[in-house]
Amino acid sequence: MASILTTASELNAALATGVFSDGGPVRVLDVRWRLDRPDGRPDYLAGHIPGAQYVDLDHDLARHGDPTDGRHPVPSAQTLQDTARRWGIDDGDTVVVYDDLKNMSSARAWWLLRHAGIADVRLLDGSLRAWIDAGYDVETGDAETPAPGTASLSYGALPVLELEEVASFADGSLLLDARAGERYRGEVEPIDPRAGHVPGAVSAPTTENVGDDGRFRSPEDLRSRFRMLGAAEGMSVGVYCGSGVTAAHQAVALTLAGFEPRVYPGSWSQWSNHPDLPVATGPDPR
Asked: Which residues does the annotation mark as catalytic?
């Protein structure tokens, strides 16, 4: 559990030696992305952790399909493997991901790489802010291109929810909606074709998993939160969001809390593009 997160000081020490004391050679990925400003490269070029490779979430961590696939369909394993090798990742490496958004976007890289079989992927707790607040240097411009990596990837390491499984899962287990409450209730919908939520899903905004400093709440606090939402000990909890990005952040929090999350990658952007599927509105699951 502890290896899901790393601190700025731990990362700095690993970069100084090239390897984590409790892991492998270190690779750092900068995943700047947000819904209103998806191109994070200008921010990356303005200042990033030394050696960090820039990750374009829309192109490196997703493929482009039909609207019925959702806005961020999972890329093929071969495509992700080629991309990971471009980042210089070898089998056995420890990969650290971060962003400047409380890990809301970098969690997508954590989940996708873990799902593809990279065993040791960590998030910089507190994101780039924690690194800068600790007084460590940033570099500007593009990082040096690494030698091509040799990582071998294939999906299946983490449990997922497919579109055809979601309704029955919501009927018999706990399905969490990680979006903001107003989107869950159907009061606003800034990007997807229908407003509301999957019938049976429980509202659980992922922003409540972190403190004001952007760091994840303690495992005990997170466990208490999810239990209040209906998660029982040993339960597999499903989670979705708008397009499968912040659902990964919720998956991190659930894992820290001791649960086994099942991410629905298509999320609301896929569900809402299927007119035959029902939609619920208001504050109640149904």
From this structure: 241
Overall pTM > 0.85? yes
Q: CA 122, CA 131: separation in Å to the nearest integer?
A: 15
Residues 47 and 170 in one domain: no
pLDDT tens per residue across span 199-220: 999 999 999 999 999 999 999 9
What CA–CA distance (Å, rounded) separates 49 from 29? 9
The CATH number of the domain holding residue 102 is 3.40.250.10
Which two tokens mark 140? 């500007």
Residue 220's alpha-carbon distances to 107, 217, 254, 258, 272, in angstroms, are: 20, 8, 11, 9, 34
- Does 110 share its domain with 173? no
40 and 102 in a single domain? The answer is yes
- Domain range for 32 is 2-133
- Tell me the pLDDT tens digit for each residue of 4-45: 999 999 999 999 999 999 999 999 999 999 988 889 999 999
Q: State the Cα angle at 57 between 2 and 191, rounded to 5°.
A: 110
Q: Is 198 exposed, middle or buried (0-12, 13-18, 19+ CB in 10 A)?
A: buried
Do 174 and 230 form a contact (C-beta atoms < 8 A)? yes
Render pLDDT for 85-132 as a digit per residue (tens, 0 to 9). 999 999 999 999 999 999 999 999 999 999 999 999 999 999 999 999
Q: What is the DSSP letter of 48?
A: B
Amino acid at 286: R
Number of domain units in the chain: 2
